Amino acid sequence: xxxxxxxxYNLFESSISENFKMMLxxxxxxxxxxxxxxxxxxxxxxxxxxxxxxxxxxALIRWxxxxxxxxxxxxxxxxxxxxxxxxxxxxxxxxxxCRQNKEWQDAGYEPVTVSVNLSAKQFHQRNLVDKVKQVLNxxxxxxxxxxxxxxxSMAMSNEEDILKTLHDLRDLGVFVSxxxxxxxxxxxxxLSIFPVTKLKIDKMFLNDAQKENKAIVKSIIHMSHSLDxxxxxxxxxxxxxxxxxxxxxxxxxxxxxxxxxxxxEKLNNFFIEV
Length: 274
Ligand code: C2E
Ligand code: CA
Ligand code: CA
Ligand code: CA
Fold this sequence. Notes:
Elements: H1 2-35, E1 39-48, E2 54-65, E3 69-71, H2 77-83, H3 86-106, E4 113-117, H4 120-123, H5 128-139, E5 146-151, H6 152-155, H7 160-172, E6 175-181, H8 188-193, E7 198-201, H9 211-226, E8 230-234, H10 239-247, E9 252-254, H11 264-273
Parallel strand pairs: 2-4, 4-5, 5-6, 6-7, 7-8, 8-9
Antiparallel strand pairs: 1-2, 1-9, 2-3
Helix pairs in contact: 3-5, 5-7
One calcium ion is lined by residues 179-180, 200, 202, 234.
């Protein structure tokens, strides 16, 4: 029995160190990816439901690994967050999204906003507002063409500095949206205090035709409008979902039904069609 225990222990220990090794390797590879420009941004169009026009694009990072091919953000953002590398990656994302959006505008396409996902670490950087300001200056993108997506849990607390950051960003003229709304602990109290411009209803509320979900979506939209916020539904995959959303006066939608996230060169066509 003792022997067996020892083996289990060794097994456990070695799996920890395996894991740890894997994380170290991945960290090294992430650094290399940054240096060697292996990251790309793909963009998913956001459509206004009453005008039918594309009004925004969400930038979603992809890691184009030289051997492994495309790696999705869910598989490396958490580690990047843990190691702090998310700051450098996030800086690149912010700059690249603004640069690309300005490039499209300069090429004569109808201007749209670009939405950039911020991780918690990024949002809590002391110099975030300065960074955003610098990126806008450097790329020449006007602030009202940038939308920053933060999650509920990042915003829903009453800390003074969070409120200040949000106000400073709004004073700068950029938009702030709350992503994955409804998946965390939303506090309606904070929602009324925070100067955010848009709520993104999480796709889980569209997943099934449950009556309760429909009622929840309806009330989120109603509440947002009375607080002067817009609502976008994400993860729209079917025409039924679309019809429902249009019926309850949801402002915008985003999802596979309309378009997958696409690399920039594929979006050019998209714009022309619009
Ligand atoms: P998210 O911000 O909630 O992004 C929406 C995710 O849903 C994207 O996955 C998108 O491709 C996917 N999606 C879009 N339409 C549909 C649909 O109709 N059905 C379904 N089932 N899925 C849909 P993706 O690109 O794999 O990104 C996953 C998450 O990774 C994002 O969730 C976001 O939290 C994070 N992420 C992506 N890019 C960045 C980034 O540049 N910075 C940071 N910090 N996080 C990022
Ligand atoms: Ca998002
Ligand atoms: Ca989301
Ligand atoms: Ca999500």
